């Protein structure tokens, strides 16, 4: 059992962006400099606050803070264990990068007054999801995040955006209802919602019903087949930084919720006795094949990335569903790796679209002559996605596959590797056409291979940093994310909750 | 194990810990950045930096010789890349790493001439250096994980060199290379997963017992690894990328790819089959497993050898001939590997032959690519039918090609002979140990397939260097001194090895074989191998004779100019149908699982919408029904009221009448008349009242309609206040109720 320490840090880290939202809203009428500065500062301080938890986490402690008197009888509770901390750190880091990127990307956009407060408000919701200590509080922040993300998705307010947003909203509400049912059912069964070590004692029809409802509720957010349909519509219409957050981080909250459900609400001992996990595992396998194969057919670059996300979420769902520590380790590490890779890819794609106003892959031929660094970052992240060593994607593929073998399921290794090949088939053409195509108008121009057309440094630095992260965090010996992912998996697998 | 060796060849297993292998691999990789930076100064500086870095890498590898000759060099970096990187250099890996570094140095020097007027040198030199680092890393890896990391890096980095030309053809060839490379890599990875999943280790040490103990299937692991590495090595039928890439890649890149990089595949197969999937025990039933695998690899090798030779003879493009020739030579090496695996602990001859041929082929094939590259660059031609008589323009090149061709054909006194003889001897040994028809056939097959080499090289040499110079090539410039000296180095090395074949054999190859765990009579025989006896020479002469006859016949019948239909190729038979099927599957998935699911949701939503509409209609109908029923009943009530009043009036009239009757008991006739009048009046009154009551009913109905104030139009603050108060009350009740109980 791990020692728990009462600490305000998870509370402050979650609520600071909430306060920040209000401040941004108040100052943005006066000056845009203050608004931009405050947005970045809020994200940065949130990141700093999350990092401040590290010493306690490294010492093997769990940070908790409970407010039983708010919203009785359930109360509100905050908690940071290795997994929660790891997720929160990943989120706030990527959020900081994306906020900086937004400054340049959104410069000429409309409705900035709406964009920034909601960007930071969503951060609060996302951090809340991973830093809460019971399913009810998790649900509250999950709702906050889901609903505020709607505003980011429909930012363009075009016909397609409204349509996609409507789809997102309906599915989100359906998911919330399912979650609500599941949470009530769990409360009915066990009388508590605390994230502990398997709070449901024995299998029952109601428990199975709640499990399926959890799968529905979190699966919709995670883009699990057959609930993924909102994802390829919503990602391309949102502004690129929002798509990066949506795909890189918010999908992960669904996966995070399911990890909590599997390892903390139901517990492995219960799930090992039943074969309920087969539902998740097979859905995940279909999700992988579906996302990867449909991505090949897409011509819109952001749509292709969106389908790629579906496939990659399948990896994560598979890893957590296989019930082996190694696979769980792979899944948790892939949550981190995919957050870096996919947000870098979306930011790079956004930079290209921002510059050329073209989003069809056929039109982006020869983009490497104009934006070598942007495409370079894209290439690095795409190689990581395919799983080329020594990048983060390779490490998660390695652990996931060995985990699948540990679980005695070699066919899933074949599915993972087939998906890797498909990743190659849909990423390589973009890179090859971008760097090597001679048909492009820019190939022989005076501007070729110059930095003149490169995107502004405010956008370039975050996306290059994220892409470099896919290399650095993999190569560094005992890199922090790798160690933390291992710790989280160990904690979930052997120590459960508190 | 090592004690089984005898005399001075026994290698004392002293393991030295040194970081030199790491630096040798990292220096060129980091050097890539340096070369890029040097390019900012000038193109000459860039080329010079590249040459210096490859020289430094060569030196770094070479100075490890004293350590390697004593045992092995090891360096571990636990925690790097999560799993931990482990480098280990023994004689086998060292020799290949050194060959790689030397060839890279020569090819880089050659590049300074070849690439002088090329575009995109900014990209060429850094990636050339990076690939060198990755390749060195492959040969210095100590386990399969590290091996795979460098192997993939090399695959991806070389892509940039392969498509250097950036033409449409080059990009297509590059795609074939890339997808074959990635698929091969994934195949290797699957094999590694199965191995690591079973034993938990990817180290280069005998693991067969552990694999079997874990219940895994070693044949499956071997199949995946051989297929994956075979795709890199150019094993039939996975060779299709070689003839596509070599004609479009710059010559130095083709030389390096053919000379070194495809050998990484062979090296992988050798490490896996001769080290990892081997029993740790010296003898036992487990060696039977090695026999089956060995036989399969041996025949794959023979098939590759024959197919490569036949296809090479049918080509017109010089680079394509060399590509198929590489395939064919890889076949020789695989045959040797197969024989070594097949014979188990006695397989020293096959191992030595394969190892020796890897080194020899690296030199003469890389040399040939550079030689023909020089000719092709100068003339701008690469088709045999458009060249000829160039020996006069390129005398040194022509002589060097002759030397290299003699080596590749296996003519005694040239280097190819030294290794091919060993492979041939290994096949004879296999037959001696297991005298089966198949093994007898293998040896004959080898001799016949070797004849093919003579055919295509004679054809190529005649086509390029002999005959008359075509008119359009008369102004071709001659060869430069730089190229001459490099080609001379290659020809010299071929001759040196060919004339003194025992030198390398005794100092390098036999000790490496002992270190690999081979023992027995074959190795003793190898320690003092007699190259110049009639027995080994005769087999080669048979091949040569056959080859000359075959060439004469086929040149006479013009077999080599035939065009064969495209559907007969591997691409036509396997690759295109596979791609088509996969594409169909992808589209099917998109249609059913993606769009299909989405559409079904839409349909569900719209049918729900319809349902809602119906409910709405029903609701309105119900509402109307209620109001109609209300109106009707109100009407009825009004009528009832009127009737009642009428009856009341009638009663009153009746009462008054009876009172009048009682009061006026006068004249009966008059009374009767009056009574009749009274009754008539009462009746009229009743009717009039009834009519008035009906009007009043209408008014009441209107009043009711006006009084329906609880609608959204009439929504008022009062209602809200009442509602909020009610809800608060409810909440308070529930709250206290819940907390109290």
Helix content of chain B: over 70%
Radius of gyration of chain A: 21 Å
Given the helix and strand composition of chain B, which structural class is it? mainly alpha
- pLDDT < 50 stretches of chain B: 1-11, 700-705
Rg from Cα of chain B: 48 Å
Shape of chain B: elongated
* SS strand fraction of chain B: under 5%
Structural class of chain A: mainly alpha
Indicate the percent of residues in helices of chain A.
over 70%
Tell me how many strands of chain B there are: 3
Seen as an oligomer or otherwise, the chain set is heterodimer
| Major sheet summary line of chain B | 3 strands, mixed
What is the mean pLDDT of chain B? 86
Q: Spans of chain A with pLDDT under 50 lasting ≥5 residues?
A: none
Distance between the termini of chain B: 81 Å
Average pLDDT for all residues of chain A: 89
The largest sheet of chain A has its strands arranged as: 1-2-3
Interface with most residues: A-B, 50 and 45 residues
Number of helices of chain B: 24
DSSP helix count of chain A? 20
- Give the number of DSSP strands of chain A: 3
Q: How does this structure look, described?
A:
- The complex is a heterodimer of chains A (about 500) and B (about 750).
- Chain A has about 500 residues and is mainly alpha-helical.
- The longest helix of chain A has about 30 residues, at about 160-190.
- Chain A is built from 20 helices and 3 strands.
- Chain A has a 3-stranded mixed sheet.
- Chain B has about 750 residues and is an all-alpha fold.
- Chain B is about 75% helix and about 0% strand.
- Chain B is built from 24 helices and 3 strands.
- Chain B has a 3-stranded mixed sheet with strand order 1-2-3.
- In chain B, strand 2 and strand 3 form a beta hairpin.
- The two termini of chain B are about 80 Å apart.
């Amino acid at each position: 059992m791990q020692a728990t320490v009462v600490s305000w840090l998870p509370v402050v880290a979650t609520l600071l962006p909430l306060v920040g939202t209000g401040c941004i809203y108040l100052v943005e009428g006066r000056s845009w400099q203050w608004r931009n500065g405050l947005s970045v500062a809020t994200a940065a301080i949130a990141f700093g606050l999350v990092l401040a938890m590290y010493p306690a986490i490294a010492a093997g402690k769990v940070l908790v803070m409970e407010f039983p008197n708010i919203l009785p009888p359930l109360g509100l509770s905050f908690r940071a264990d290795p997994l929660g901390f790891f997720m929160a750190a990943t989120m706030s880091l990527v959020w900081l990068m994306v906020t900086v990127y937004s400054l340049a990307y959104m410069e000429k956009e409309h409705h900035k007054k709406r964009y920034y407060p909601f960007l930071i408000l969503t951060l609060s919701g996302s951090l809340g999801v991973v830093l809460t200590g019971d399913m009810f509080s998790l649900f509250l922040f999950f709702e906050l995040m889901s609903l505020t993300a709607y505003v980011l998705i429909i930012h363009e307010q075009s016909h397609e955006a409204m349509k996609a947003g409507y789809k997102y909203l309906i599915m989100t509400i359906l998911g919330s209802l399912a979650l609500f049912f599941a949470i009530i059912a769990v409360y009915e069964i066990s009388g508590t919602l605390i994230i502990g070590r398997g709070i449901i004692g024995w299998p029952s029809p109601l428990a199975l019903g709640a499990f399926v409802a959890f799968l529905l509720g979190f699966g919709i957010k995670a883009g699990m087949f057959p609930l993924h349909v909102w994802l390829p519509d919503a990602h391309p219409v949102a502004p690129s930084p929002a798509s990066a957050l949506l795909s890189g981080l918010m999908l992960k909250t669904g996966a995070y919720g399911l990890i909590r459900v599997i390892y903390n609400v139901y517990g492995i001992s219960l799930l090992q006795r039943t074969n309920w996990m087969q539902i998740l595992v097979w859905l995940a396998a279909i999700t992988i094949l579906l996302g990867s194969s449909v991505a090949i057919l897409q011509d819109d670059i952001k749509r292709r990335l969106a389908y790629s996300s579906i496939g990659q979420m399948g990896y994560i769902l598979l890893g957590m569903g296989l019930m082996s520590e190694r696979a769980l380790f792979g899944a948790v590490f892939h949550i981190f790796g995919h957050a870096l890779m996919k947000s870098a890819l979306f930011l790079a794609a956004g930079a290209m679209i921002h510059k050329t106003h073209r989003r069809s892959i056929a039109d982006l031929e020869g983009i490497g002559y104009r934006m070598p660094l942007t495409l370079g970052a894209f290439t690095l992240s795409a190689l990581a996605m395919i799983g080329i060593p020594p990048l983060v994607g390779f490490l998660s593929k390695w652990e996931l596959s060995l985990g699948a073998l540990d679980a005695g399921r070699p066919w899933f290794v074949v599915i993972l590797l087939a998906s890797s090949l498909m990743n190659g088939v849909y990423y390589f053409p973009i890179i090859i056409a971008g760097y090597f195509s001679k048909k492009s108008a820019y190939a022989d121009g005076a501007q070729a291979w110059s930095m003149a057309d490169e995107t502004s440094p405010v956008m370039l630095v975050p996306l290059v940093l994220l892409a470099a992260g896919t290399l650095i965090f993999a190569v560094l010996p005992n890199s922090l994310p790798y160690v933390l992912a291992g710790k989280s998996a160990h904690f979930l697998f052997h120590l459960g909750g508190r | 194990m090592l004690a089984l060796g005898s005399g001075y060849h026994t290698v004392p297993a002293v393991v030295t810990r040194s970081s030199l292998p790491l630096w040798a691999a990292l220096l060129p990789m980091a050097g890539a950045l340096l070369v890029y930076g040097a390019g900012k100064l000038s193109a000459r500086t860039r080329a010079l930096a590249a040459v210096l870095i490859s020289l430094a890498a060569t030196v770094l590898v070479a100075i490890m010789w004293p350590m390697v000759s004593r045992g092995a060099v090891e360096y571990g970096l636990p925690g790097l890349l999560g799993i931990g990187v482990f480098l280990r250099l023994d004689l086998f890996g060292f020799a290949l790493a050194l060959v790689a570094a030397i060839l890279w140095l020569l090819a880089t020097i050659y590049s300074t001439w070849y690439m002088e007027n090329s575009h995109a040198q900014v990209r060429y030199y850094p990636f050339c250096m990076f690939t060198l680092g990755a390749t060195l890393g492959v040969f210095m890896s100590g386990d399969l994980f590290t091996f795979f990391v460098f192997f993939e890096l090399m695959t991806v980095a070389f892509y940039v060199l392969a498509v250097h030309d950036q033409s449409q053809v080059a990009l297509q060839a590059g795609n074939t290379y890339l997808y074959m490379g990635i698929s091969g890599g994934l195949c290797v990875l699957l094999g590694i997963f199965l191995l690591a999943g079973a034993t938990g280790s990817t180290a280069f040490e005998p693991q067969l017992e552990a694999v079997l103990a874990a219940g895994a299937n070693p044949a499956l692991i071997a199949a995946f690894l051989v297929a994956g590495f075979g795709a890199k090595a150019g094993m039939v039928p996975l060779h299709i990328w070689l003839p596509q890439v070599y004609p479009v890649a710059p010559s130095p890149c083709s030389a390096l790819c053919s000379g070194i990089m495809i050998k990484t595949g062979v090296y992988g197969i050798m490490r896996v089959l001769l080290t990892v999937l081997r029993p740790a025990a010296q003898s036992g039933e487990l060696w039977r497993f090695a026999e089956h695998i060995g036989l399969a690899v041996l025949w794959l090798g023979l098939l590759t050898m024959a197919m490569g030779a036949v296809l090479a003879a049918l080509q017109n493009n010089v680079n394509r001939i060399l590509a198929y020739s590489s395939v064919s030579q890889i076949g020789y090496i695989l045959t040797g590997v197969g024989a070594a695996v097949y014979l188990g602990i006695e397989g020293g001859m096959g191992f030595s032959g394969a190892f020796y041929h890897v080194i020899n082929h690296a030199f003469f094939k890389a040399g040939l690519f550079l030689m023909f590259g020089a000719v092709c660059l100068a003339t701008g031609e690469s088709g045999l039918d458009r060249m000829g008589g160039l020996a006069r323009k390129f005398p040194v090149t022509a002589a060097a090609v002759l030397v290299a061709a003699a080596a590749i054909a296996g003519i005694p006194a040239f280097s190819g002979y030294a290794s091919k003889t060993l492979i041939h001897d290994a096949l004879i040994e296999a037959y001696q140990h297991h005298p089966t028809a198949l093994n007898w056939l293998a040896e004959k097959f080898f001799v016949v397939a070797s004849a093919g080499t003579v055919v295509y090289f004679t054809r190529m040499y005649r086509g390029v260097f002999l005959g008359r110079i075509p008119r359009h090539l008369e102004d071709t410039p001659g060869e430069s001194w730089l190229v001459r000296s490099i080609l001379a180095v290659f020809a010299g090395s071929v001759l040196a090895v060919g004339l003194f074949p025992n030198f390398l054999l005794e100092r390098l190859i036999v000790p490496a074989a002992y270190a690999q765990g081979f023992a027995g009579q074959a190795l003793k025989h190898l320690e003092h191998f007699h190259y110049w006896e009639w027995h080994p020479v005769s087999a080669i002469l048979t091949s040569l004779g056959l080859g000359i006859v075959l060439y004469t016949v086929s040149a006479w019948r013009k077999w080599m100019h035939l065009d064969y239909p495209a559907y007969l190729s591997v691409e036509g038979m396997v690759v295109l149908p596979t791609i088509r099927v996969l594409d169909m599957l992808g589209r099917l998935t998109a249609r059913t699982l993606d769009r299909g699911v989405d559409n079904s949701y839409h349909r569900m939503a719209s049918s729900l919408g319809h349902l809602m509409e119906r409910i709405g209609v029903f609701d309105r109908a119900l509402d109307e029904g209620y109001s109609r029923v209300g109106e009707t009943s109100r009407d009825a009530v009004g009528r009832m009221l009127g009737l009642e009043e009428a009856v009341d009036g009638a009663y009153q009239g009746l009462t008054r009448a009876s009172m009048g009757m009682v009061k006026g008991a006068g004249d009966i006739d008059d009374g009767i008349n009056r009574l009749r009048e009274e009754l008539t009046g009462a009746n009229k009154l009743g009717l009039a009242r009834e009519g008035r009551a009906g009007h009043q009913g209408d008014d009441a109905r209107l009043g009711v309609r006006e009084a329906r104030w609880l609608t959204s139009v009439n929504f008022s603050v009062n209602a809200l206040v009442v509602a909020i108060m009610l809800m608060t009350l409810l909440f308070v009740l529930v709250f206290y109720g819940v907390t109290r109980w």
